[in-house]
Structure formats: C-alpha cells, structure tokens
C-alpha cells in the first residue's frame, strides 16, 4: 500500500495532501530497503504478523546508519480480504 493510499479519505475518495506532504520525507526507495534487508534474507527475519513478515536491517539515511524493521506485505492476506 502506498503512502497516498494510506492518506486517502475513504468518505470522499480524496487524498489528504497535507498528510501526504508531512510524510513525504519518509519515502524510502525499494532498492534501499532491499539493500538494507539483504533482499529480505532469512538471516534478517524478525517475525511474522497477520499482514506479513518483518525483516530487520541497517539503512544509510541522511549520512547515518540506522536500524530498521520493515514489513513485507502478505499478498495472500490482501487477496483474501478483497474476497470478503
């Protein structure tokens, strides 16, 4: 799910541009996430949740190496949700 989808107002189907601009700096390119998690390698597995699998990694962000945890979305869960 994209940031835009998360910020969409369900009632009138419009994107809240104020929210979008306030989180725009948090967008991290997929290539950086893949590098940080070593392409979601088993050794970076952190745990599972209903919506997907969590992986840990180290990301170079603004010149600083930071620890991250990312969630890889479980597409099967998303497909099941749409069928309901």
Q: What is CATH's topology name?
A: Phosphorylase Kinase, domain 1
Structural class call reads alpha+beta
- Measured as a percent range, the helix fraction is 25-40%
At the first level of CATH, the class is Alpha Beta
- Rg is 15 Å
Anisotropy-based shape: globular
Low-confidence segments: none
Oligomer: single chain
Topology readout:
Blueprint: H1 3-6, E1 8-9, E2 14-15, H2 17-23, H3 30-36, E3 45-49, E4 52-61, E5 64-73, H4 75-83
Antiparallel strand pairs: 1-2, 3-4, 4-5
Structure write-up:
The structure is a single chain. The chain contains four helices and five strands, in the order αββααβββα. It has 84 residues and is α+β, with helices and mostly antiparallel strands. A hairpin with a 4-residue loop joins strand 1 (8-9) and strand 2 (14-15). The radius of gyration is 15 Å and the shape is globular. The two termini are 18 Å apart.
Key features of this structure:
alpha+beta; 84 residues; Phosphorylase Kinase, domain 1; three-stranded antiparallel beta sheet; 5 strands; 4 helices; two-stranded antiparallel ribbon; globular
Task: Write a brief caption for the model.
The chain is of the alpha+beta class and 84 residues long.
